[in-house]
Amino acid sequence: MNDWTDAETRIERAQKLAELRKWSEALGELDAAIAINPNDPLWHAHRGQLLDQLERYDEAIEAYGGALAMLPDQIEIQAAMGIDLIRVGQYEKAIEHFGELSKTDPDFEPAYCNRIAAYTRTGEHDRAEEMFYLAQQVNPDCPNCFHHIAESLACRSLYERAIYCWKRCLEIEPDYPQAREHVAEAYRALDQYNEAEEFYLAALRRDPGNIEILGELGDLLVEKDELASAASKFRHILDLDPDSVRAHIMLGLILSHQGDLDSAVSHFESALALDEDHLGLRSHLGEAELRRGNHYTALRHLKLAIEKEPDDLIGHVAMGNCLLELSRSPEAKEHFERAIELDSTLVSVHHNLAVCHFMESDFERGIQNCLDALAVDSDNVLAMHKLALAYVHLGRWSEAVGMIDRGLAAAPEHEGLTSLKRRLWWKRIRHFVSALLPRNFRG
After folding, report:
1. What is the mean pLDDT of the chain?
2. Per the domain annotation, does 77 fall within a domain?
């Protein structure tokens, strides 16, 4: 067999392997053929297609460039190269590339269609819409155009219009990749959870083993507070992929919320064994250990979490709570203060920072923390109770009475406020009687 015959044989093998979706093996055969005969432009173009399947887009661009050096007017190869320029983030170059193609052939629809995608990624949404309408004049039923313009609309939070375009895409091509998932995401952004669930389920019916869709559906069910259903989805993911970090973490969070802390910790530890650098994981594990009463185990995880991510809000809150339970209020304050810097709307953190100050007899700062909590949640009875106690301690009777009455208006059966009101009544009576008695009759 001579070299030329060997090259042709390898090309035939490459085509058969590609039909079987064995991309790497097909590429190996094709490379061997090109090594024998590097002068066939279509072989280089085929090589670009195989590299696209392997997501080696930079190399695919080189392969298409090699084909175009020998066959410069092949517009389909030029289009494939332009698409890969978008994939590797060379948006301006892609826009220029497709602009030249539209000059060469004004009726070549992909020259407009793909510029919608490129302009979307550069944030030039007006130009994206301009390209969409130009493409519509050439081909009003291009599913790619509707997909690309839907992306642009979603980037601008124009979700209803985006949904219309993705649905139009599905009308034209019912199996368009990920279109149903995109519709579901847009419905989620509109808080239309039932509609989102419908489209996730439709996507799953076409691809039952898709772990990514199962995970998104599980997240959606968490958002709907359907935790049992959500947990079943994440358990299904673990049946398909026991090493899914995401599924272990989400099950851990669900079980923690349901109070099954032992099982939650088990899932968090499984996730940690799979990916010890996963951001936020040690915070969740530390928080669960804290709730189990394992303070020093919690501290170890939380310390590592904050070292890895200094702005870990969950980590700072849990660390503050853990240190507070260990009566280490000066250290706890640092973490609560950092948490408030990250998110000033956390009422419980303002409250617990107040507790730290009260433990150190710094009543004025504690009072201010409670007032900060009430500024966020005016009906927070816990903060009212602490404020009333502080006012009583400082002898600020009228303020104490006002806060007690405010708290009881919000929670008439609150035991702490009811008890404090009785104590305050007797304290004021004793103070009044004492003031009336002659000095030698006072205790």
Report:
1. 92
2. yes
